[in-house]
Design a protein that fits this description.
Chain lengths: 242, 506
């Protein structure tokens, strides 16, 4: 960034800080009391009490997740292990004639070894392996995006993916088909079990992107007729492992 | 094609236009009913809905009561995450900051995901004025942008267009004839907007919730375009109403439970994204630079106002629109502001400091309380509508606004005879349109016999006193017209019938 731009940003920054003071003071004045500087007691934080302890046994979590994810238009398969996931994805790739597969980086998907089992001309790219490549374009041309989910929630039928260097946000967004591997021990009952972790890790420790995905991209904007895959993946598989 | 909503200037005229459009009415009804039924089903299925609503209300009340603390915390934390935070008191300031960023980044195009705040600021127009293309990427918004119109529903902006009209619009854009087939049309938009996402310099979003304790911003959506906008372009600008704050991620669970269910009847929107700062050093996607512009633009007028502060609790779900018999009948454009339906009827004048020209909107509601019942954070919109009318009356705001209002009202309700609520409305209307110790009334279904000028019957009580009665009536529900009132009115009619000559109207 050129120096002029840097100094412009710095100037905006100092103006913003001054403005913040006036803006926040103005709010306190409107509320007709002195400014509150200490954390107020928040007796209603989070979900109602009865909900906080609610939890399904694992079989029910799987059932409910499956039911919810399917009713949103997604697909769910329960598979015993990563070997089964590999053959499942390879099978779908062959069936749909996928040519470009993009996967996240990371030990679990490394162990999955898709690269080793998909014959030419299928190309498997690993997100951000070689720096400098235009990874967003790689993702946009991919037929399959393969991710290893960080969490899932049964009650809403949602998969959660967190971003980092090896886990691009684009991998779960730009390809036509999304394959999400969900290890069963990461499948929770409620959203709150997942969200609580973000409160605990707090500022500074959160990834830039936290994404909950609950089915294929959809829109009902044309005459209320449901369309699938408007911007994000139109076909989404959740592969529950274990 | 009719350029609806830009030519007519009063609610009456706009309502008239909408009422003449058969398709609009059917489309609005079909969609809103589906969404509403979906909502009822989702709420019921979820169980304990009332407890969730109450929790949602408490969280919003708490946050707004300590807005200075939480907003300050949010700004500090967002900055710590590497976000450039800006504050804008007016629409003008917000626009200036946005344009400055666009200019400094040498932007030629901006891709936008759905944001009511940017509508409110008329940002697209401003961007275009400096030669920056602003592309709406939400399918419905994209369609109405091509048509050169404004949204008619918070959640389904193109609710008033059929697929033939949409095929025409998209064909013009494609340079080839596209069949009126939803899948093909959506496919074209997907391809077209992919190019736009990849070549855009700036991604622009609104913000559903901002989490104070971690400085994160949260977006709910179904299409994935908000994710595109926050992932692909180098610079992200988020416009955020200053009241969008919630304290923690734990509180987000409550909002995530209430918002999708109330908006579309979904258990969860397809995507819920929490964005915490620009891309990290080693990330290969996400914006390199992220700005959040915190906008007041009239919101703080509600702070400390006991009657209207709760407006700031609104989570923009649109449930009150779907529940409103008047909205269902006349559609969104008739409201003439950025926000339509019951929430728009109150919010628009409130954001504008209750300026007289918007006053007629408050009359385009039946006060039946359906909006309150539907609201996931229990905002008493129906009461606020009454406060608004009362303030107008108290301020002695001239007969112009009032008569305009009542005409609009008559247009709306005249065509909505079958709604039982019309009766309640007339009943209330009688009490509301009090001026100079008398009543002027010529309302919808009762018009035929109530076209007299002044009824001194109630003049022995002050408006204040009557106001109390009215408030009680609203609180205890207005299921039917009071038989004694009806009797009294009927009596009046007979008396009128015996009088010679017409009385004309003020
Ligand atoms: S007022 Fe309530 S129902 Fe209406 S949009 Fe706001 S939150 Fe939703």
């Amino acid at each position: 960034m050129p120096d002029t731009e840097r100094s412009w940003l710095a100037e905006m920054e100092s103006r913003s800080l001054a403005k913040q003071e006036a803006f926040i003071n103005g709010i306190a004045a409107k509320l007709q009391r002195p400014r509150v500087l200490d954390k107020p007691a928040h007796p209603f934080r989070g979900a109602p009490d009865f909900w906080q302890t609610f939890e399904w046994p694992v079989t029910e979590r799987i059932e409910r997740f499956t039911e919810n994810f399917r009713s949103a238009g997604g697909h769910v398969s329960r598979l015993p292990d990563l070997d089964a996931a590999r053959s499942f994805i390879a099978g779908k790739a062959a069936e749909m004639e996928a040519r470009h597969i993009l996967r996240q980086d990371g030990p679990e998907l490394e162990a999955l070894n898709l690269e080793g089992c998909l014959p030419e001309p299928v190309r498997v790219a690993v997100w951000n392996r070689e720096p400098g490549d235009n990874w967003k374009e790689r993702a946009a041309e991919a037929d399959f995006g393969v991710v290893y989910a960080d969490y899932a929630a049964a009650y809403t039928g949602s998969i959660t993916v967190l971003s980092d260097a090896g886990k691009g946000r684009s991998v779960s967004l730009l390809p036509t088909v999304l394959m999400a591997i969900v290890p069963v021990e990461r499948l929770k009952t409620r959203l709150g079990e997942i969200l609580g972790d973000f409160d605990r890790s707090g500022t500074g420790a959160l990834p830039a992107g936290i994404h909950f995905i609950s089915g294929p991209s959809r829109s009902a904007d044309i005459e209320n007729d449901l369309t699938i895959g408007v911007h994000g993946p139109g076909i989404v598989y959740a592969l529950i492992i274990g | 094609m009719i350029d609806r909503g830009t030519t007519a200037s009063t609610v009456k005229e706009r309502a008239q236009l909408a009422l003449n459009d058969d398709f609009l009415r059917k489309a609005v009804k079909f969609t809103t009913e589906r969404l509403r039924n979906g909502k009822e089903a989702a709420a019921e299925q979820h169980g304990n809905w009332e407890e969730w609503r109450e929790r949602g209300k408490q969280i919003r009340l708490h946050t707004i009561a300590y807005l200075d603390y939480y907003l300050n915390l949010f700004a500090d934390n967002a900055r710590a995450n590497g976000v450039h935070v800006h504050f804008a008191e007016t629409a003008d300031e917000a626009v200036k900051i946005t344009l400055a960023i666009a200019e400094h980044r040498g932007a030629r195009s901006v891709v936008k995901s759905k944001s009511m705040v940017t509508e409110e600021l008329h940002l697209n127009r401003a961007l275009e004025s400096i030669g920056v293309e602003a592309v709406e990427t939400d399918l419905g918004e994209y369609i109405i942008q091509l048509a050169g119109e404004t949204p008619s529903h918070i959640i389904i902006p193109a609710i008033h267009k059929n697929r033939y009209q949409i095929a025409d619009l998209l064909s013009a854009e494609a340079g080839e004839i596209l069949p009126p087939d939803t899948a093909i049309l959506a496919g074209f938009v997907r391809r077209k907007l992919r190019e736009k996402f990849l070549e855009a310099d700036i991604g622009m979003t609104g913000c559903n919730f901002a989490i104070a304790e971690t400085g994160s911003m949260v977006l709910f959506e179904n299409e994935g375009n908000a994710r595109m906008v926050t992932t692909v372009p180098k610079t992200q600008i988020t416009l955020m109403g200053m009241e969008r704050i919630i304290p923690s991620w734990a509180d987000l669970e409550v909002m995530a439970t209430l918002l999708p269910r109330s908006a579309t009847g979904q258990k969860m929107t397809v995507y819920m994204s929490g964005i915490t700062g620009p891309k990290r050093k080693h990330d290969a996607d996400g914006p390199e630079e992220m700005h959040i512009i915190i906008v007041d633009n009239g919101r703080s007028l509600q702070l400390g106002d006991p009657e209207f502060q709760e407006l700031l609790n609104c989570i923009r779900c649109g449930a009150c629109l779907n529940a409103c018999p008047v909205y269902r009948h006349i559609g969104g454009h008739a409201y003439g502001g950025t926000y339509s339906g019951p929430i728009g009827a109150v919010l628009t004048p409130a954001l504008n400091g209750n300026v007289a020209e918007w006053d007629d909107i408050a009359n385009a509601s039946s006060l039946c309380g359906a909006c309150y019942e539907a609201c996931p954070v229990k905002i008493p919109l129906h009461e606020m509508l009454v406060y608004l009318r009362r303030r107008k009356v108290e301020a002695g705001r001239g007969s112009k606004a009032e008569s305009l209002g009542m005409k609009g009202f008559a247009a709306v309700m005249g065509g909505a005879r079958r709604y039982r609520t019309a009766l309640k409305l007339a009943q209330l209307g009688q009490k509301l349109v009090v001026r100079d110790g008398g009543i002027r009334m010529k309302v919808g279904p009762l018009k035929g016999w109530s076209s007299y000028r002044v009824t001194p019957a109630l003049a022995d009580r002050s408006f204040r006193q009557r106001w109390d009665t009215l408030e009680q009536e609203i609180r205890s529900g207005l299921s039917e017209i009071d038989p004694t009132v009806q009797k009294r009115m009927e009596q009046k009619r007979q008396e009128r019938g015996q009088e010679q000559g017409g009385h004309g109207h003020a």
